[in-house]
Design brief:
The chain has helices at about 5-10, 15-20, 80-95, 140-150, 185-195, 195-220, 275-285, 295-315, 320-325, and strands spanning about 30-35, 40, 45, 55, 55-60, 65-70, 70, 100, 105, 120, 125, 130-135, 150, 155, 165-170, 175, 185, 225-230, 230-235, 245, 255-260. It is built from nine helices and 21 strands. The strands form six sheets. Strands 12, 15, 16, 17, 18 and 21 form a six-stranded antiparallel sheet that branches. It has two domains: about 5-125 and about 310-325, Phosphorylase Kinase, domain 1; about 125-280, ATP-grasp fold, B domain (D-amino Acid Aminotransferase, Chain A, domain 1, 2-Layer Sandwich), CATH 3.30.470. α5 crosses α6. By secondary structure, the chain is an alpha+beta fold. Bound molecules: ligand Q0N. Ligand Q0N binds near residues 33, 39, 40 and 122. The site of ligand Q0N has 16 residues, from β2, β5 and β10.
């Protein structure tokens, strides 16, 4: 095909996705789900030599895409996918005493080109509800409270002000809408959708425990975890621990993190990670409707620094340590070098 023909040929659906959305195509791996920011690929069945069981596995890959106001910007934030994967793994490792999780490995079975931003995970039967826990009254919870005095059927005290800490964390599930916004539901509706009220009660209790554990840790790092969302699944091949938390956990994309410094009740709080983009977009005059505008270099750099700061504050180690443990390539390195092992020149 001529140069000209190649350029003018219509893109296939997959090529268009890759070109316009910074989606990584991994050779041979079937893409089974593509979200705003992450992709899920099917992997080979992992044979377990010990037990003779086979485990179905997936590869979850976090991109550097960023969304604000539900729209994905055309400009990626370098290393964002690695920061979010590193944070998710940090929390998976520290919350395994609360509930089992789907993480298998961030090294074995991960293709080189996505090292640092991918996880091999167990394939689960996902529950059809999003498990939101709120410790502060903000966002859609604040709207619902103002309209009804309740959130997800939970009556709250009178006179709460925007961004105020709740007397105790509340479980406010929602349904996974295919298009548009998730719909808030109460516990009973969630139990109906899941088809097992006792299981849903366990999911609620575990969600609140995960939130409380993480919020306490975050607070000690100068960060408020206002709310967060979990997705759970069942692993029928593990009868001792069938309930498993999946997806990403306690990342800035699945949570609202606020700087504790400057926290003030009575108005919305700045986002720890996305505030530079939101402030810039407001000044730029974007109407918050898609398509989202390209982000200028200085705002990209400031936002990248905030993600790295979030990692370092919460994980308590240099971001470089994550890159080194996973053998990730360093974006900044000329020619895309591997991160140097400890002690290497
Ligand atoms: C799964 N999602 C929705 C875009 C979609 N461990 C698992 N097993 C089976 N299915 C899923 C998981 C997980 N996690 C979850 N789609 C499939 C959320 N996202 C995840 C990232 O990619």
């Amino acid at each position: 095909m001529s140069e000209r023909g190649r350029r003018s040929a219509p893109l296939s659906g997959l090529q268009a996705l890759v070109a316009s959305r910074h989606v990584t195509v991994l050779a041979d791996l079937p893409l089974i789900a593509s979200g705003k920011v992450r992709e899920m690929y099917e992997l080979e069945r992992l044979g377990d030599g010990q037990s003779g069981r086979v485990q179905e596995t997936l590869l979850m890959v976090a991109s550097d895409r960023i969304s604000t106001y539900d729209a994905v910007h055309p400009t990626p934030i370098p290393d964002k996918g690695k920061v979010l994967t590193g944070l998710s793994v940090f929390w998976f490792e520290r919350t395994a005493h609360i509930v089992a999780n789907h993480l298998i490995s961030t090294v074995d079975g991960v293709p080189e080109e996505v090292l640092g931003r991918a996880m091999v995970v167990r394939k689960l039967s996902m529950l059809p509800v999003e498990c939101v826990v709120r410790g502060y009254i903000t966002g859609s919870g604040w709207k619902d409270y103002q309209a009804t005095g309740s959130v997800s059927g939970i009556a709250l005290p009178d006179g709460l002000r925007e961004s105020e800490r709740l007397p105790e964390p509340i479980f406010t599930p929602s349904t996974k809408a295919d298009v548009g916004h998730d719909e808030a539901i109460d516990f009973e509706r969630a139990a109906e959708l899941v088809g097992d009220r006792a299981l849903m009660a366990r999911v609620r209790d575990v969600s609140i425990e995960l939130y409380s554990f993480a919020a306490e840790h975050a607070r000690s790092c100068g960060v408020i975890l206002a709310d967060t969302k979990f997705e759970f699944g069942l692993d029928e091949s593990d009868p001792a621990h069938p309930l498993v938390v999946g997806d990403e956990v306690l990342t800035p994309d699945s949570s609202r993190y606020w700087p504790a410094d400057g926290y003030e009740v009575g108005h919305g709080q700045p986002s720890f990670d996305k505030q530079y983009v939101r402030d810039w977009a407001a000044g730029y005059g974007w109407d918050k409707k898609p398509p989202a505008p390209a982000i200028p270099d200085d705002v990209v750099a400031g936002t990248r620094a905030r993600y790295v700061e979030a990692y370092e504050r919460i994980a308590g180690e240099p971001f470089r340590a994550w890159l080194e443990r996973t053998g990730a390539t360093v974006e900044g390195a000329a020619g895309g070098g591997r991160s140097a092992p400890d002690g290497a020149a």
